[in-house]
Amino acid sequence: MELSDEQLKQNLQQVQERIRAACQRAGRDPADVHLLAVSKTKPVHDIEVLRDAGQTMFGENYVQEIRTKYEALGDSVEWHMIGHLQRNKVKYIIDKVKLIHAVDTVHLAEQIEKEAAKAGVIMPVLMEVNYAREETKWGFLPEEAPEAARAISALPHVRLQGLMTSAPFTEDPESNRGYFAGMRQLAASIQDLQLPNVTMNTLSMGMTRDFEVAVEEGATIVRVGTAVFGERDYPNPDKGNGNAGI
């Protein structure tokens, strides 16, 4: 469903207000929480409307969609790769995205290292953690994350900046609070390892149905699509891709 320009701007304002209210409840500074507008399947025009209304960060699930939209908009917005990333496609986005959210294997991090070295860039990444242990989701299990972080810390062109998770799809946001709190604690435990090239400053968690609870539990990036752009079709219901940001 395509929305009018005014509806898009109104939705953006409403989501921003909900983030501010959640921060107030949690005693957090709203400046510490960033809205990532998930623009997958949505037209360039909608992104331009939101950009002109002050939204700077946009998340995409598919490499080809980032490439196409980058041709139209370039660096006028900040692009984030939030979907499952195949190793053979890293080269297509290494010079286009600000942050790769879903590093779900050490092998993928090593491929990012190779492509970043070729491009002469340092690539910030997040490790994806399957905290709820869902069989349909990608990511490290919580107990695997510290050792994976240690391996990634050895890659000179990769900077591990935090963690990302996709909590279970739910009608009751409170049911995901424990997962978000666990992610915050896991990030703190990895930070305590004091690994080189690793900071745990970023927690990417919370989507349209549960982002307020995620903010209350420490999210620094919330990935919100439907509440901003309206409902959308999901033509590629591949494992892990369908709800990296809704």
Characteristic terms for this protein:
alpha/beta; TIM Barrel; 8 strands; globular
How does the SSE layout of this entry go?
Blueprint: H1 5-26, E1 34-38, H2 44-52, E2 57-60, H3 63-73, E3 78-81, E4 99-103, H4 106-119, E5 123-128, H5 145-152, E6 158-164, H6 177-191, E7 198-204, H7 211-216, E8 221-224, H8 226-229
Parallel strand pairs: 1-2, 1-8, 2-3, 3-4, 4-5, 5-6, 6-7
Please explain how this structure is put together.
With 246 residues, the protein is an alpha/beta fold. It has a single domain, classed as TIM Barrel (Alpha-Beta Barrel). 36% of the residues lie in helices and 17% in strands. It has eight helices and eight strands. It has helices at 5-26, 44-52, 63-73, 106-119, 145-152, 177-191, 211-216, 226-229, and strands at 34-38, 57-60, 78-81, 99-103, 123-128, 158-164, 198-204, 221-224. It has an eight-stranded parallel sheet with strand order 7-6-5-4-3-2-1-8. α4 (106-119) links the parallel β4 and β5 (123-128). The protein is globular. The two termini are 14 Å apart. Residues 236-242 have low confidence and may be disordered.
